[in-house]
Design brief:
Elements: E1 3-5, E2 9-11, E3 49-50, E4 55-57, E5 66-67, E6 74-77, E7 105-113, E8 116-125, E9 134-137, E10 143-144, E11 159-166, E12 171-181, E13 187-195, E14 197-204, E15 210-215, E16 225-231, E17 239-242, E18 245-246, E19 263-267, E20 279-288, H1 294-301, E21 322-326
Length: 330
């Protein structure tokens, strides 16, 4: 039997004096849940929240959670995590994490409002450090990456090639890299400095397969630029991304037949060519046996800061398809 006390609260089993009286201490208009047990949580209060990712590198923009529950609470976490507004691991009203000040570790972050709490697991990881690149002198510097017998990629299947480069000169046909084959008919895929922009070609010495791009823009500005070519393997056509964005220019010439090339021969000059040496810096040449999607390319570009390609992160999910990654000394 319950005995009504105060403002609509009840004492449980109070007929013999052993029951507990719950006291309404914040006003008659409030509604309480299980008040006989002394619980002061308002009915309808929730503490839901989330971050956009479950893992962040410590050089990324400081993330702020989205509160899906009741507003007005505070955030706390284990020692080592630092919130921007509190400067410590407790007492934050925003939950924004100061990634650069936070120790690399896994954390449980708690949001508490009106006595109700919920937790989110989140990791802060060490950012990929990319301090070095290869400088090519434009005269005789190049890297012999593989022989024609070292199979890396088949252009008759989905594929992608990515690299970073910076240069200041104007050239008509100096190569970034070239894939090639010595089997008949001779087949090749290459990318080159084309005036102030870049060019790309897939071709064979016989037959009709050929694709030729001349991509505009003032890219010889001495700043780092990121390039990605992707193809589906059914034709020589491809998608071209520059600094994370899809290039909409159409190829100068096209061919109807795909070609098959197995190995990247040279980085910094054309295959079996005495000239055509690149003059500038290059970094992180990578090859996948899959066609990267637009969101993956944007993640790899990462606003101009390279990411590690041998592990998935954010929208980049193709690390298992990575066939080669020439990190150029870093």
């Amino acid at each position: 039997m319950a005995v009504t006390n105060g403002w609509g609260q009840a004492a449980k089993n109070n007929t013999n004096g052993y029951g507990k009286l719950a006291t309404n201490n914040i006003g008659a208009g409030s509604i309480y849940e299980d008040s006989w047990a002394g619980d002061t949580a308002l009915i309808g209060v929730t503490a839901g929240f989330s971050y956009s990712k479950s893992s962040y590198e410590n050089n990324e923009a400081d993330p702020t959670p989205t509160i899906t529950g009741t507003a007005g609470g505070t955030f706390s976490a284990g020692s080592g995590l630092v919130f921007v507004d509190s400067g410590s691991n407790t007492g934050s009203s925003t939950g924004q994490i100061d990634l650069s000040a936070t120790t690399v570790a896994a954390y449980t972050i708690t949001y508490t409002v009106s006595g109700v709490s919920s937790n989110v697991s989140l990791s802060v990881t060490q950012a990929f450090i990319n301090d070095y690149s290869m400088l090519f002198d434009g005269t005789n510097d190049y890297i012999q990456a593989a022989s024609t017998s070292d199979a890396i990629i088949n252009f008759q299947n989905p594929w992608s090639v990515s690299w970073w480069a910076k240069w200041t000169y104007t050239a008509a046909f100096d190569c970034f890299w070239q894939f090639g084959s010595t089997s008949a008919p001779l087949m090749y895929v290459l990318a080159w400095v084309n005036g102030t922009g870049i060019g790309w070609q897939a071709a064979r010495t016989t037959g009709t397969a050929s694709l030729f791009y001349n991509l505009g823009g003032t890219l010889n500005d001495g700043d780092w630029h990121h390039f990605v070519f992707t193809g589906d393997g059914t034709t020589t056509d491809c998608n071209v991304y520059i600094d994370g964005s899809l290039n909409t220019e159409t190829p100068t010439s096209t061919g109807a037949t795909s070609i098959q090339v197995a190995a990247m021969n040279n980085i910094g000059r054309g295959y079996a060519t005495t000239g055509r040496f690149f003059n500038g810096n290059m970094d992180s040449v990578a090859i996948w046996d899959t066609a990267l999607g637009a969101t993956e390319v944007t993640e790899i570009y990462n606003s101009g800061t390279p990411i590690a390609l041998d592990s998935d992160t954010g929208n980049y999910t193709s690390s298992a398809d990575l066939q080669a990654w020439y990190r150029m000394g870093d």
